[in-house]
Design goal:
single chain, 168 residues, alpha+beta, 6 helices, globular
Amino acid sequence: MQLNQNSALERLANLGMDDMPVIEYTPKYCSLDVDWFKKYSSLRREFLSSLTDSLEEIAFMNLPQNEFINLVMGQSLPDNLSIRFKIPLLWGGELSTKNMFLCWTFPHSHNLDKFIIEQSDAKTVFLPNPEKKVYLTTHGGGGGDGGNASSDRLSQAAIAAISGRGNE
């Protein structure tokens, strides 16, 4: 399906992501290096560790405290969170943290898969291009009501954990 920018944004709105910016891209079909997954695994850890500058966005995900800390420490990715490439590797995307973002697996990652697959036969495609490393819809997020998921408590816990990182 060949989309234009307006129809791409409309389709994303229908998928519940009306605030997701897109870029127009011409796929450059390529093959992956044999060791791409090894490089990706290392890059994944680097990306997770880089999320310390996204504490506020992650706090709005209302993760349990241990999952929040493990995520911002680069130790583990909680269930229902996905790391996505802005430009798929098979379409010429770089194996780089600048080409990655974090979002909910369901519904966002699933819906982005639908959005991209629907365009698989198009000469020019529109791909998600969130401004930040963590994508949350503006209408789907919201902080906690002061419990363990509140932004302040989680941010303080993460800062404390990160500060202790150098003592290992």
